[in-house]
Amino acid sequence: MAAHKCNIFMLAFVLCGLTYVFVRADIEYTNHVKDAESGAVDIAPKTNIGASLQSTKTEDQTQTAEEERQWEAETNPADAPSDNKADHVHDTMQNLDSRPAPYAKDQTQEAAEEERQWEATEVKEADHGPDTMQTPDVPPPTPAKDQFQEELVIRPLHSGDIYASFQFRTMWDTDFLRGSKVSHYRLFPKSLGQVISKFSVRELHISFTQGYWRTMQWGQPFLPSPPGAELWVWFQDTVTDVDGAWKELTNVLSGIFCASLNFIDSTNTVQPSASFKPLGLGNVTDQRFLRYAVLPREIVCTENLTPWKKLLPCGSKAGLAVLMKSEKLFHSSFHSQALHFRPVCQDWKCKSTVWELRQTLNVVFDLHTSGQGKREWSLFKMFSRTLTEACPLASSSKVYVDVTDNPQGELFELSPTTPLLSQAVVLGDRRTYSVYDLTNQATFGQTRSLNMLLRWRAAESGDMLRPLLHGERYVAGYGLQTGEIHTLMYNNHPYRAFPVLLLETVPWYLRLYIHTLTVTSKGRDNKPSYIHYQPSKDRLRPHLLEMLVQLPPNSVTEVTVQFERALLKWTEYTPDPNHGFYVGSSVISALVPSVVAMDTNSTRECPLFSSFFPCKEESSYFMRVYTEPLLVNLPTPDFSMPYNVICLTCTVVAVGYGSLYNLLTRTFQVEEPSPGLAKRLANIIRRLRGVPLL
């Protein structure tokens, strides 16, 4: 018993000793972290952490001063020339960022000492030339091979709604396609990089859209997209089996974005001959490596937004992505998220290329569906969140607010105000934007939060300039046998005609009568200058129709074609066949004249040499317009008939076969009739008297 108690005391003593050691180490580590956070950095390794703080500061300041003098002696030779001083100062200051700073008594004194140190360094380094950087001890800084930028553009619409467009761009200088395996990913998403490398993709464009963009009410979007899901890909010319790579790629992307892209097959895939040229660098014109498909019935939900946000370097934890709250984004009139991958120039000289990954998200918040009833918007009302910081990995993080229609502040009031203004020609129109730089801490103010507020002052927003190019589409006819597709293209330019390229993709179960194709403008026939038609094959491929049509100024061009509805097999109908079958949107591509060059006012005072030809900078720009998708009813059998047949058959079997079965299996027995009441009473009396029964 005594030995047992001794063991218990020894164990308790050991535990107390270990606890004291861990607590002491934790206290020392905490003090060390606090000193590091206050600006104290230990250059030499310390053996006694619990020494006095004052002696440590003195030793470190002395050692830091000695290292500074030694570093200046190594990097500043006496016989260095004085050419190219500014470049050397810039490079040297970048190298100084990695050096440790000395201890300071407080923040004010530390800032003052640091400012004097920078000033002294600039003066000293300005006397030396480029030979200083040739020393082997201080190599020149290597430029980053990848960078990330984020932007948010807010545009008040004339209808009172708010259009918000997120832009995230990741640039990476690497080689995906020359056999070199890329194993290190910093900003570029690894899941997407492996897919691009495996399937030799040169350009990838994918979008998921819920709703239809109302061009006549909202104007032109920055990046248009059709309702549903759209995917078009340019493969490298080294791909031998394009169809096989396309099929595998759609299945992989279906898993990445949690979408129904696996339903893309040969029945809804086309190979355009003139549309969807590469948007990046490269003169690849062989259409054999292009595939285009659209799923107009695809429903966009939170499960598609979540993997899209995970591709961002900061995810949804910091930067502009914190505003992407699902319940707010999908409670809107229009929502579209897209991803574009292409090769672009690395610099303005374009001597080398880099890969650009651009993620965009466009959303339109309706004034009436929000339930507020006030013409007042803010970041918190739109997204239920505010901005507190930029993405730490972003080299640029800005918010743009379109104030073109509000030069004097008579239309709406924007707060907080910013002195930064930017002008740019967007979609052929010169626009003015108020810029909020999130990398500047002064943008957030004392509250450390940015919540921009737009308050309308005028009841009406004025008349909106009609878009120069607009498209519509509808189905005409009656019955379930034949019909007619009408496509309308509007040219609202007052005096300029321009050609457009129309792409029509029609499923195989709508059998087009191509001899009924008519194109009319202002009541006259408008003969297309180019027509490419690929007929469909039942259950193999759809119809493909491409036309190059000249649109007269201030006109409406109508394209009509008749079709016949096919009768599908009963296994080819959707679970809700009476809802109808969707037909993808028509695609209109054109070089549209710029609004900047559409100045018809010849009475305004201007130099004569600049007013002879009505042409200015940015005379035309490329635009792609999508029409509405079609909903077509097909001859649908009565799918309740099998139920009726089953009920009728069961009734016949129960009545007919049941009666016959009873007749064949039932046995018959002769039963004597029961005696009457008088006879039964007489027998009772006879039984009592002991007389035989009757």
UniProtKB/TrEMBL annotation:
Ranges annotated as biased composition (Basic and acidic residues): 82-91, 114-130
A GO cellular-component term linked to this record: GPI-anchor transamidase complex
Signal peptide stretch: 1-25
Composition skew (Polar residues), residue ranges: 51-64
Pfam family, one: Gpi16
Taxonomic superkingdom: Eukaryota
Location of the region described as Disordered in the Swiss-Prot/TrEMBL record: 51-145
GO biological process: attachment of GPI anchor to protein
Keyword annotations from UniProtKB, A to Z: Signal
Matches recorded under PANTHER family: GPI TRANSAMIDASE COMPONENT PIG-T, GPI TRANSAMIDASE COMPONENT PIG-T-RELATED
The protein, known as: GPI transamidase component PIG-T-like
Gene for this chain: LOC120060964
